Amino acid sequence: MRFKPSYAPGPTDVRENVRLALAKKTNNTDFDKEFIQYYHEVCQKMGKVMGTTNEVLLLAGEGILALEAACASLTEPGDRVLVLDNGIYGEGFKDFVRMYGGEPVVLSFDYQKSIPVEEVRDFLEKDHDFKYATFVHCDTPTAILNDVSQLSPLLKEYGILTVVDSVAGMVGEPIDVDKNQIDICCGGTQKAISAPVGLAIVSISDDAKKSMNNRKTPIASYYANLQIFNGYIEKGTLPYTMPASTVEALEVALDNILNEGQKAVYDRHAKIAQAVRKSVQDYGLSLFVESGASNTVTAVIIPSEIGALRLQNHIQETYNLYIATSLAQYEDVILRIGHMGENAFTDKVLSVLTVIDNGLRDLGFEGKGNLGQLFLDALREEN
Amino acid sequence: MRFKPSYAPGPTDVRENVRLALAKKTNNTDFDKEFIQYYHEVCQKMGKVMGTTNEVLLLAGEGILALEAACASLTEPGDRVLVLDNGIYGEGFKDFVRMYGGEPVVLSFDYQKSIPVEEVRDFLEKDHDFKYATFVHCDTPTAILNDVSQLSPLLKEYGILTVVDSVAGMVGEPIDVDKNQIDICCGGTQKAISAPVGLAIVSISDDAKKSMNNRKTPIASYYANLQIFNGYIEKGTLPYTMPASTVEALEVALDNILNEGQKAVYDRHAKIAQAVRKSVQDYGLSLFVESGASNTVTAVIIPSEIGALRLQNHIQETYNLYIATSLAQYEDVILRIGHMGENAFTDKVLSVLTVIDNGLRDLGFEGKGNLGQLFLDALREEN
Amino acid sequence: MRFKPSYAPGPTDVRENVRLALAKKTNNTDFDKEFIQYYHEVCQKMGKVMGTTNEVLLLAGEGILALEAACASLTEPGDRVLVLDNGIYGEGFKDFVRMYGGEPVVLSFDYQKSIPVEEVRDFLEKDHDFKYATFVHCDTPTAILNDVSQLSPLLKEYGILTVVDSVAGMVGEPIDVDKNQIDICCGGTQKAISAPVGLAIVSISDDAKKSMNNRKTPIASYYANLQIFNGYIEKGTLPYTMPASTVEALEVALDNILNEGQKAVYDRHAKIAQAVRKSVQDYGLSLFVESGASNTVTAVIIPSEIGALRLQNHIQETYNLYIATSLAQYEDVILRIGHMGENAFTDKVLSVLTVIDNGLRDLGFEGKGNLGQLFLDALREEN
Amino acid sequence: MRFKPSYAPGPTDVRENVRLALAKKTNNTDFDKEFIQYYHEVCQKMGKVMGTTNEVLLLAGEGILALEAACASLTEPGDRVLVLDNGIYGEGFKDFVRMYGGEPVVLSFDYQKSIPVEEVRDFLEKDHDFKYATFVHCDTPTAILNDVSQLSPLLKEYGILTVVDSVAGMVGEPIDVDKNQIDICCGGTQKAISAPVGLAIVSISDDAKKSMNNRKTPIASYYANLQIFNGYIEKGTLPYTMPASTVEALEVALDNILNEGQKAVYDRHAKIAQAVRKSVQDYGLSLFVESGASNTVTAVIIPSEIGALRLQNHIQETYNLYIATSLAQYEDVILRIGHMGENAFTDKVLSVLTVIDNGLRDLGFEGKGNLGQLFLDALREEN
């Protein structure tokens, strides 16, 4: 397969030292104490990056497994679960809840804005009988960011556990699991962490553990059951064979982040994202998000006479470059520029913006100036 | 982590060209048609190796996910399922059946012998009202091989679908899915295929698909739901982000197998396995299996005054080499020598046998001759 | 060391499959017949790319070793050698000639133009008593290209052997060793071949071999003595340990070239080079070369109030990108944009031109338009 | 090419982290200050491993280039040079001396013993008018070790510069350049350092530099001229393009050595070598060396009715493993077992000895016991 650079909001570029770590020979992973200790250390390093001393687990699967595992492990038949919805993934949680016998209560908001904290508070005053609540940190299809630092503590005030999907948020945006009192925080390796696909991440608070331990019914899954990891260190064995190469690669990616410094990584994302948003607007296009744009991805509205899908196809065919549109109702409306993790660097964003500029011109759009140059100019103004 | 060669029955050594394939940059995997086409081609190549034109899926997870997905996708509440049991994994299927609401009927046999086909026939004459049956091709903890070519057709005679766990069998032993009429055949990448851990393999027959399509209740899982892949080519999207590196590495591993020739690979396994079994016995130790030994792994009984666990520890500490014991009741009784896939080569087996010989001597066992040399002599006799 | 993309005229980017070939385990290289056969095959593949069935040798060293080896092996004390000079490397040959006891006669021409074939013809009519003549295919410091197809046959008419330095020419520009009757053609792996540094390349005609065999004095060097390779296949041994990894990597790079097709590679270089030259001029800068610009590198005159060195430094510090200036008297005058081998791709050239544009603006230069966009526009016009 | 493990005395196995370093993208090497600084640091690290603060240079070539460069740079026409000869490489120095116009005086000794220091002293008392002397640390074709700690200081007493070929010695045996007052110490990357082939190593004392600076005639070579590196840091440029990948790989190999600890590395070589020598003799074969065996390689006399070449061939064909015989008059007499650098590990030596044992048996030799086991037993006795 010919390599085609991708500027989708994940999977992101994987840095050379991370890719080369994948090529190393690996030790037996099933019963070898050294590996089990190593796995534990990488989990803790992951926790450090997430801002938590809670137990962190790496599941052998894609990020969505983390979401299912959280719901599978917490939900018992009949449990009421509050699903906060201002985006496609946000709403999607209701399916996992239902699948495991829970009763989702979906609270929906404007998809072009962050979840309004005050409206949630008003709702909770009237009804707060929920075992747990779910929401998404960054809902990628629309590039919206929700305010974890307010939502999660608010829910905890009412004794409601929180499950947060930060797959496309963590590392690009602060998540601070402990400070924000997130009970189960879900992540994936292939977004802003810029490690290979293949590990789903969950952190589990003591409250969440207590809730699982107090279940009256067994968890109706093995692969999505977080309790199969219980006591793995003492037992000296993991519940299944771990992808050791991916664990080693993840560690290198985490070291890259820690070596750069998490503050520096957040700043890099913020600078790039602001310049992208400014340049796109200076150029004459509109953003989908009205308030609360994520620094990991930007959703740009493509005029209907051009169409996001047509632009995407044209760019693939003419410039051998992959850009994502959105999902569902937004598929032909929104073009998404991913700028998270290893993709949040000036040269890469310059490349993709130059291509988008040329692609749009090819299809008849008249931008105001050169999009790449507008981006560089916007970056320069920030300093 | 210091590298420690492992002769467990998986994960096996991954050949250099497969490991280096992991280090390549990968394309976007979510919506890119080229990748989806590529994924499909690797699935078909996997099918070729398994001897089937059935649909083959690669799930982003460890081999056990294949087993769970088969049971999750087939089982509806109340379904009767026949669980053929002559080993630890064989018996374990009952848990998956129960988890998804089925009623497992466990038919147990001597753990030191292959499943006796005639006894199964006798049983079926009396009771054959089962939606599907499960059994294991090679049950690794005890190194037993079951005769797929007889069991699966027999069950099909009675209209019973078959789910076969060939995780530790396929590639090392013929599986011939189509010839043997296996409805769902499960595999993993890290055993005799000698690709990295991280993909679970299932082939799905038309009968199995029909059965899933005729369900009256939804499948109670997303990650273990085989139907989420339905129509992925037409839709132009996979249900979640695939570990593209692992898919590429798997393809290289499959090419290695096809280039060597499947017949040659089976012969290599058979020769090595026979020489291992002969040399171990000539040396003065006994095999666990009385009839039906698998060519992928050998289970050796370690005298109780030495103990398999003590020998394993001694060898790890003194010779920096990992050998597996067994599980559960056999943990301290059986030492397992894995000789599957990339580990089924003379030099590697010679290494591990020489170390086992020295390890046993260190602990006071008096073998008859030099175990490594006995192995080489046995190999020579075979030719 | 932090990675810094380089757009110097070599070493060029090395494609991923070539770099990964370097990571493979290698066989013993000294006496192993399989390796010696392999080395020979790679030499022949190199010859295919150079358009010759002459013997080709890969010497374990940098490209300059090829030049020295040619002169060391041909020159005997007192030999008259014609040195055609229209560039820094062209003139430099006189030092090698002198070092090995020869008497160089330097014929110098305008450095901004290709060597004028008619003037050489006029000179030869009067004086053609030379053992051999030297000239450079592409003299990188000034980006000038000489017409091998005329010069070499002309010299052969007079019975003069030709030594051609095509280190920075071959693969990017046709060299056609046999058609052009080049006696010793010199190359390096790290230019348009885009393999790792570490092998010097020479092809040796029968006439050149005869000349070496007829020497009256021994060659005054071992490492630069081409005769130490005589009969290496029959002897079953090479004169010293070859860098096996680099030989394997070179083979992959040659396969990349042959798979793309040599004609397609030349066209790619031509298209990119023309667009670079046009866009630089449209932007308001001048080229150094008046006639005979090479398609592998472009020499741009930087206004003295800015200075090539200052621009180079500014770009390194501000944009983390390496661009070469020139050598000697041109060091602060010429900026060189390398676009050979793996660097001759639109996206890479777009990157470097965009950075140069911004760098020049930062230092007060007012370009006419956006240099990157001018390049894309020029490319588009070509089609 | 099929991979064939080699137990020749170099090139040795290259550890995985060193090989993977080769696969990294590299920076421009010619004029980039960061690379030049990096090159300098790796040279210094190389010096640390050699026990010297003298300038160390890495030349882009095979080890033999170091020897030629030392002689080319020191020798002026008519210079008398003392060549100490107790092995094939030892004697070979005379050719380099002559090639550059010097007058070699060859002092030859028994090839089965270390150079007798007292005899050298006696000779020097009578004749010590030499510009420099040459000798070999470990002469690999016969596996002999010379006592650098005595020879070099003795020569310096008489004001004679010393050129020591430690290509096959350093890292496996202490070289201590400064303590032993070696003026030019020569090495290669592919022996006990276990880095890839491709860099020749020289350390140059101030006395040697003075001698070069005081030359009356120019050095008759470019590639073998050590003075072309003069002032490379100040100039900000190296004399030719360095193989950056190999420099990076060398650094990783040096880090491996320093991390293990040089004392530990010497001990590892000593233990392995002693056990090899003991086991070979216990088995019933004789060593070539009577006194002064090197710990990096062992020369075993193969009975003439078998023949070293026949044994070598048989082992290659039957066991796919490469073992070296010797050179010249010893080619069919001596089998050499390399156990230096990454090859000086128990499992690897066990492998090769087991194969040699079986190979000898196949050809009719009756060894006393199992050679691999004798080696393990000998190792055990050492502790």
What does this structure look like?
With 383 residues, chain A is of the alpha/beta class. Chain A has 2 domains: 16-259, Type I PLP-dependent aspartate aminotransferase-like (Major domain) (Aspartate Aminotransferase, domain 2, 3-Layer(aba) Sandwich), CATH 3.40.640.10; 261-382, Aspartate Aminotransferase, domain 1. Chain A is built from 13 helices and 13 strands. Chain A has helices spanning 16-22, 33-50, 63-74, 88-99, 117-126, 148-157, 206-213, 232-235, 244-260, 262-283, 308-319, 346-362, 371-382, and strands at 55-59, 80-85, 103-108, 132-136, 138-139, 144-145, 161-165, 184-188, 200-204, 286-287, 297-301, 324-325, 334-338. In chain A, the strands form 3 sheets. Chain A has a 7-stranded mixed β-sheet, with helices on both faces. The longest helix of chain A has 22 residues, at 262-283. The radius of gyration of chain A is 21 Å and the shape is globular. The two termini of chain A are 40 Å apart. The mean pLDDT of chain A is 96. Chains in contact: A-B, A-C, A-D, B-C, B-D, C-D. The interface between C and D is large, with 60 and 60 residues.
